[in-house]
Amino acid sequence: MNEKTKNVDEEKRGFGMAIFVLLSFLLMKPAYGQSDLISLLELAENNYPLIAARQAEAEAAQASVALEKSTLLPSLDAAYQANYSTYNNITGMSYPGQLLPISGPPTTENFNNPVPGSAVSLLLKWAPLTFGQRTASVEYNRKLYEKQLAGLEDEVLRLKFRVAFIYLEIASTKELIEVYRKNIERNEFNLTQIHSLVAAGLRPGVDSLKFRGELSKARTELYQLENLQETQKLELRELLVSDEVRDINLNSFFVENLPDKPADPSGLPGNPALRMAQYELEANQARLTQISRSWTPKLELWGTTYARGSGILHDGTVDKAEGWSFSRYNYGVGLQLAFPILDIPKVKLQTNRQEAIVRSSESYLRQTQIALSKEENIALNNLETSLRVAGEVPVEYEAAESAFRALQTRYTAGLTDYSDLIQAQYDLLRAEAGLKNTWISSWKSLLKLAVIRGDVNLFLNQIQN
């Protein structure tokens, strides 16, 4: 094989390998970093069953509004009736339904012979004027629809909070795993040093056993953290309702950057739970108006046209064939005004009941405002405290690290004992873990504040890869 052919084959193999790597990358499930948190939130919103349930409830409420508006349209009913009844009744035979046929002449005698009769009709009913009843009913259902929309937003906001909070929990656990791995490295280094000191007779052999136990304990704590991280990822996948998330790739952003404090003015009107309480009050007020107008008159326009046939002729003779065909045609229009006089006491009781419900809704709205205001103040205080603490913990960490290095040197030189060194190592571990947790806690506080104000973007807009 000449050199040119060999180079061509190598290029083909290289090209094939590149295609294989590209296809493998495309088929891999995606991994997400900080900037992809928005994608995770959208994935959860699109897949979570409870969000779909709230969406369906809102659509049902919207349909109720359209249904109430449709009562402005007239109704038109068509009916056909055929009967075979006694001679006595054919003149006034009636079944439950649309028709009251007028057929045949009256009779002075009692005849039980069956005679056919038939009728067909169109009946128009229209109530263009309801004295405010329809308007109140439409308004009531519109407020229920707005409440359902706010409930949908509230459910979405709660879901986003849970996803973002677990996301921060995963970031926190990841940082703690790194801290405990460093602690294991320190234990392994100490154990190696002590083996040499024990062999040289500078340290008692029990120190070697103690450090071996500390190393085992550190590994156990690491295993527990790794298990916690896997549990958190499973919880996240449950909220996402998707197996497409292969992993969460996080760098050290949350422990290297602190969030900025949002503006002080309250953003509570953006909280959907508060809007739900407001719409609940407005819906109950609309229902009160609806009840108070239920006793007003009802004005209806009626129109009908019908044809009938009777097996009894005008002179009383029977011709059954005539009963199956139409021989008389009629029409009529009219207005009907109905006033429910005896319903007034019942409406009064219903009004009293609904007024109590309105007062309850007003109190509930006020309580919701108070509770959210308290939660906002707590979240602000937590964020401010986290930011202040985050400014102090680096000093504690640096002091703990310097103390550990110094005691490690003194221990090697035989100037201190095991208990002082291991205590310094614990202090360093606690300070480093506290450093990581405090910084991420400040992001959790910002997240809680954003959710209370009803705008998760207050949190998302500060996150970068």
Describe this structure in words.
It is built from 9 helices and 6 strands, in the order H-E-H-H-E-E-H-H-E-H-E-E-H-H-H. With 465 residues, the protein is an alpha+beta fold. The chain folds into 2 domains: 31-69 and 134-291 and 345-460, Outer membrane efflux proteins (OEP) (Up-down Bundle); 75-129 and 298-338, no CATH class. The strands form 2 sheets. Strands 2-3-5-6 form a 4-stranded antiparallel β-sheet, with no helix packed on it. Strands 1-4 form a two-stranded parallel sheet. Mean pLDDT is 82; it is low at 1-8 and 15-33.
Quick description:
This protein has 9 helices and 6 strands, in the order H-E-H-H-E-E-H-H-E-H-E-E-H-H-H. The protein is of the alpha+beta class and 465 residues long.
> Gap between N and C termini, in Å?
51 Å
CATH architecture of the largest domain: Up-down Bundle
The geometry reads as elongated
Q: What's the number of domains?
A: 2
The structural class is: alpha+beta
Poorly predicted ranges: 1-8, 15-33
Order of helices and strands: HEHHEEHHEHEEHHH
Query: How many strands appear in the DSSP assignment?
Result: 6
Mean pLDDT: 82
For the largest sheet, list the strands in their spatial order. Answer: 2-3-5-6
- What Rg do the Cα atoms give? 41 Å
CATH topology of the largest domain: Outer membrane efflux proteins (OEP)
The fraction of residues assigned to DSSP E strands is 5-15%
Helices, by number, come to 9
Q: CATH superfamily assignment of the largest domain?
A: Outer membrane efflux proteins (OEP)
How would a crystallographer describe the biggest sheet? 4 strands, antiparallel
Q: Helical percent range?
A: 55-70%
Per CATH, the class of the largest domain reads Mainly Alpha
